[in-house]
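tool_log.txt
---
The assistant was asked to compare two proteins side by side. It first ran the structure predictor on the initial sequence, then on the second. Raw inputs and outputs are pasted verbatim so the downstream comparison step can read them without reformatting.
(1)
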Amino acid sequence: MPANQNAVAQIAPFAQAAGVKCTVDQVTWVGRNPDGKDRFEVGCANADGAWVEVTQTGGDATKIECFEIVKAGRTCGFTTPAEQAATLQAWLASGEAPACTVEQAKYLGRNASGRFYEAKCTGADGLIARIDTDGALAQSWACVDATRVVGGCTLTTVAAAAAPPAQR
């Protein structure tokens, strides 16, 4: 059908309505979820993509970030690890994070106060960041201090705490 020829033009508005904040450059249909919504993967130019779910009537679009898709053991074919690192780098730049050039990024989970990500930093200690619902850095912890934050860091090797000095 001619209306289906340019999937990016057709699906990008739904992605934007669902909260995808990027330039959509690729789209493919992934399937239909159990609620009957059509599920599309959207790729983003130089950023993390998402799965966007849209009702068959074209309303009520929702998104699932590719970070979350990967954590769940699925794949996002249009999103590269470098794009995920660039996305986390941009979020870190929105706040007072320690100096970090994100080499690798990983989604850890979420709670009512935000989403948690780990960053492996080039030439520096890694960190865990809490990103708020607007995509801004809300809080960060150096990996050495984050052992109890969402299970701690796994991308960065954290040295064990030094033993207290012996008493005489």
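(2)
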Amino acid sequence: MKTKLMENRCKFWVPKKSRFCANSPLQNSLFCGNHTPRTNNQWIPCPIDPSHSVLQENLGSHLRRCPLVKQVQSLSTQPFYQKGVNAGKEDEQEEPETGIPTSGFDIVTSEMKRNAVYSLNISEFFEMIGKIESVHAQICNDIKDSYKIPEACGVWIKGEVDRNVPFQEKHVAQQASMLGNLEEFGVLERIDGKENCELVERAENSNGVPAVVEFGAGRGYLTQMLADCYGIRRVFLVERKAYKLKADRSLRQKESLILERLRIDIEDLNLNAVESLQRLPYIAIGKHLCGPATDLTLRCCLANERSAEQCGVNCYLRGLAIATCCHHLCQWKHYISNPTFCLYNIYIKIHNIFSS
């Protein structure tokens, strides 16, 4: 009986489990749908969501039922969705060496950047190193390390949090330091005593920060720490992907906190069109914003500031704290201050080497 069952199973060997796949094979095949051998000619990235592939012959039917279709259709009806609003405009600067305009370039991949580095000879390479050190000395000489662990985050630092909340000491220390620096600059205020923690939504009567916008929020545990330690009242989580084990469930259990998750790419977010954020001061935070997401976030917040000045809407940025990552993914077209680079004779070719 057992032998017969084995014959009706997928013939893909699973090394970690030391057995064959338990799924049933497809008709006229030795393998199930997950393990059927693929060829590059048959499978193509889904044009709606490139994170998965589809058989080319099934592309038409797949596009009608792709899980992302409904989300895209729903997002396009939202007032805060504006395609590419924070992508920035590529300035018409010319490369001195080639006279080629720097605008109109496609996304430069990490491999292309590495190839640009490998193409340098020894003298060019050391000249580039010298240029990097020179520019860094001119621009970054006033930047200092600031590692602050505020008393308000003591519960998290000591690990005295709900066991259902994921706890990793490394991430907790990073998050606490971000909040500690915000407190040091007076952007965050520590609230002593729950009975005195009345954070109202109007800026003129606020006793702290009434709104927090977390960009690239992921599961939202940076906001979870903020809510636990600083008594924030209104939260907006901006994230383009869907995650499991989010902090949302824990955050929604706080009676005094209003949570809104915006599933949207930062590049397409018109923050001033988020109705529930209007007439509120806010702080913007983001931990490990990948590649150009930092530039997109800055442009999103600063554009919101300009719009507020023009329209007279009392929705302003009180402070901002971002931890960057994945610098090799940065793109010239997204960088928020290309003219600054050009002042130091850094154009797209050199920028690509800088960010490789």
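---
observation on (2): Residues 149 and 176 are 6 Å apart (CA to CA). Strands lie at 13-14, 19-20, 43-45, 53-55, 211-215, 234-238, 258-262, 282-290, 317-325.
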